[in-house]
């Protein structure tokens, strides 16, 4: 496995002036380590006030979600004028046996909930975080004709609306055509997913912490799981896509795509 260390957890408040620090090297050791980054954007390192944080990703959700549990003894909400939409940067270092990995994520505050006064000088609360794409999705709509393979359609939506690249694993089926009926980008992607498949298996569109957006079919996931392990294969020439794996009972009849 390895160990994890949080390098920094930065909050970028709106219209708040900070005094420049004397020593940037101590930023990660102080809850009040305020500075400016290379783009001259002002931030406050709030790591010392964070009791815990979590990042949620999954193949059933198109974007990442985060959560910060704050123990606040400095009235951070008032001092930093947090109203929502502020950027939060998280950097985590993973130390493995032969190398180190840096995992970085950028979020924006969506809401603050559960404020509780624990004593006269302190309070606790939860900050919910979403990605920039979550906000962008609520501002845009798709209302154009389409005529292409499903994987290409989803690639185009991700590139045109979010400016991101899409990693594709699997096929999406034949060309489909129609008109998007004024759908949000994520809704348009779900519309395409409902009308596509890879050898009778569904496709999943999701965002990963380390490597961005993915489009994977269930077949490609099973293929990856089965790589290098031929003992799991069931040698049945008339079986369908699922029959090669132990995780039956999803057996389907063999199709022309299996040939």
Blueprint (SSEs and pairs):
Blueprint: E1 3-12, E2 33-36, E3 42-45, E4 50-56, E5 65-72, H1 76-79, E6 87-95, E7 100-119, E8 122-130, H2 132-139, E9 145-148, H3 150-162, E10 166-169, E11 176-179, H4 185-193, E12 203-208, E13 212-217, H5 218-226
Parallel strand pairs: 10-13
Antiparallel strand pairs: 1-3, 1-6, 2-3, 4-5, 5-8, 6-7, 7-8, 9-11, 12-13
Describe this structure in words.
By secondary structure, the chain is α+β, with helices and mostly antiparallel strands. Helix content is 17%, strand content 37%. The protein has an 8-stranded antiparallel β-sheet with strand order 2-3-1-6-7-8-5-4. Strands 10-13-12 form a 3-stranded mixed β-sheet. Helix 3 runs antiparallel to helix 4 (185-193). The radius of gyration is 23 Å and the shape is globular. The two termini are 40 Å apart. The model is unreliable at 21-39 and 229-252 (pLDDT under 50).
Element order, helices and strands? EEEEEHEEEHEHEEHEEH
Strand content: 35-45%
Query: Which whole number gives the mean pLDDT?
Result: 80
Q: Please tally the β strands and state the result.
A: 13
Distance between the termini: 40 Å
Helices and strands: which structural class? alpha+beta
What are the low-pLDDT stretches, counting only 5+ consecutive residues below 50? 21-39, 229-252
Strand order of the largest sheet: 2-3-1-6-7-8-5-4
Overall geometry comes to globular
Largest sheet: 8 strands, antiparallel
| Rg estimate, integer Å | 23 Å
Number of helices: 5
In percent, how helical is the residue content? 10-25%
